[in-house]
Structure formats: C-alpha cells, structure tokens
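From the pipeline queue, job 12 of 40. The input is one protein chain; the requested action is below.

Action: predict structure.
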Amino acid sequence: MEPIGFATVAEFLKATGPYGLVAILGWAFWRINEKKDRELKSLSQKVVSMAEAQTAAITKVEAALVALKEAISNLAKGGRNAA
C-alpha cells in the first residue's frame, strides 16, 4: 500500500470539508489502535510463554525439594536404626 501524499489529503479535505477531516482522523485513530492491539497481543503471548516456563521451573524445584526431604527422612530413619 502506497503512502498518501499531502496533496491528495488536501484535495480530499477540500472536497469533503470538515466531514473529511473527521474521516481522516477516525482512520488514523483506527490504524494506531490496530498497531497497539498487535503489539499488546505479541506482549501477551510473551508473558504467557514466560509464565509457562516459570511454572515448569517451579514444578521441577518442588519435585527436587520433595525428593530431598524424602532422602533426608530416609537417612534419619536409617541413622536411628543403626544406633
């Protein structure tokens, strides 16, 4: 899509008057919001990806802590039995 030149915009405004200005401003607002929405969607996808990675890491740490607790508990039981 080719960019619109100032001369073209000026001719459009001359032909349409204030309604043309409202139309151009509405179009510009729509384009800005469309770009913002794309960026927010991309940011949202990155946040979800990071949250999934963090959840997986937390789950692994919890599993390791449970295994460590069980190992310590087994060592403590074995130490009492030996005495």
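Job complete. The helical segments are 6-16, 18-82.
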